Amino acid sequence: MPSYPPEPFRIKVTEPIRLIPPEERRTALLAAGYNVFAIRAEDIFIDLLTDSGTGAMSDRQWAAIMQGDESYAGARSYFRLAEAVKGIFGFERFVPTHQGRAAENILSAVLVRPGQYVPSNMHFDTTDANIRARGGRPANLVIDEASDPQDRHPFKGNMDTAKLKAFIGKVGVENVPLGMITVTNNAGGGQPVALENIKAVAETYHSFGIPFYIDAARYAENAYFIKLREPGYADKSTLEIAREMFALADGFCFSAKKDAIVNIGGLLATRDEKIFQAIKNELILREGFPTYGGLAGRDLEAMAVGLYEGLDETYLAYRLDQTAYLGERIREAGLQIVEPPGGHAIYIDAGALLPHIPHGEFPGQSLAVELYLEGGIRGCEIGSVMFAHADPETGGMVYPKLELVRLAIPRRMYTQSHMDYVAETLGKIARRAGSLRGYKFTYAPEALRHFTAKFAPL
Question: What would the pLDDT profile of 6-44 be if each residue is shown by its tens digit?
């Protein structure tokens, strides 16, 4: 059996959880329209739906909360956050937002016009949706190795710069208002991006005069992967690596609910003064004054502390090892995962487990439902429910290459026995995988349908 890393913290506060009986789980699922997003949290035993805002804050973060300045404008909490943003990312022009998708919304509102394209390695769901909501077209140009779950390329999140150059040439540089890269690549298995690749992507964008923005939700985990895997960085700190990453960018959007280990918050930064003024105007309209951006002062304080805690290498070593442990236990249970394990989640290859369920019948959704029924565990489908869409030119359905279920691990929250229970539950499902069936929509909104869709079993 793989070894489990000792937690680099002591547990000070606990919260009770309860595994409700199977018949109650079935009733809860039926009431939710077979969508695990709609199940009450108190009816979940182990919640791996997301690592966004679900982690445990530290004693220092809770202490900082008590110092929150709730002044509407110019609060001292904002300036503490500004010091952290400058110290880590090197940006002076930034605004706080209530979460990452708010930053994406503002960025898209300011820069994206109908018919324009925004390339990246792989856009995640809210980024993709915010670009589409402005009439834009997100484009995913990740390396080919990312499409093979069993390929153990150390940086499967890398963007293919040859594809990027060809793409810009095809659509025209005038139709690309900004270019992006996501670190780590959440949609593709939480896979990291090499600094060498970030440099090449930045050079490519800049050679065409295209501003380069980083989707930085899990930048700290990405920095630690660089330290572990990329030649020349073993002796550099994660802080030094992060500074080198962001020195290449013209801006970034950031969900602080991930690597800043807070329950709410986000950031949007740019180096361009004209764009910054437009961002602030949009922020005031939709989020709040530029020094609080939809957050309380106490949230700004917790974020300022959490940004540095998220870069702590003892914590990051534990974080990556915990994820790798779960991945190894799931392999032992007979399931395939996206290899190698990422930093924040294990991605189960639902398509490989359920080859008898086609894309249009949602194999990932079938596995997510069964995981709750069998063990009260909530995961997240990342496949055709989340990403299939109609081609705007042909009208035909475009399905993602991978049908996955993501088990996102909240930070500093679950222990080894929880991970073992998850793997054992999946083993039970794997032994009867052939009996699982697909699902159909009974309701689906146009955008971000996985959040509120309703299903029925086939």
Answer: 999 999 999 999 999 999 999 999 999 999 999 999 999
Residues belonging to the active site: 72, 124-125, 215, 217, 258, 450
DSSP β-bridge partners for residue 397: 390
- Is domain 22-51+312-457 classified as CATH 1.10.10.60? no
Cα separation of 425 and 54, whole Å? 22
CA distance 159 to 174: 21
Per-residue confidence (pLDDT) for residue 398, from 0 to 100: 83
What are the sequence ranges of the domains in the chain? Answer: 22-51+312-457, 59-309
* Confidence at residue 208, expressed as pLDDT on a 0 to 100 scale: 98
Nearest to 228 by CA among 84, 336, 340: 340
CATH of domain 59-309: 3.40.640.10
Tell me the helices (H) and strands (E) count for the chain, helix number first: 17, 16
Indicate the helix (H) or strand (E) that contains 404. Answer: strand 404-408
Q: What is the DSSP letter of 248?
A: T
Q: Is the pLDDT of residue 393 over 80?
A: no
Beta bridge partners of 83: none
Contacts with 400 (C-beta within 8 Å, 6 or more apart), sequence order: 383, 384, 386, 387, 388
CA distance 148 to 403: 12
pLDDT band with cut points at 50, 70 and 90 for residue 82? very high
- Are the CB atoms for 42 and 372 separated by under 8 Å? no
What is the reported pTM? 0.94
As a whole number, mean pLDDT of residues 57-85 equals 97
Token pair for 451:
């959040």
A 10 A CB-CB count for 434 gives 9
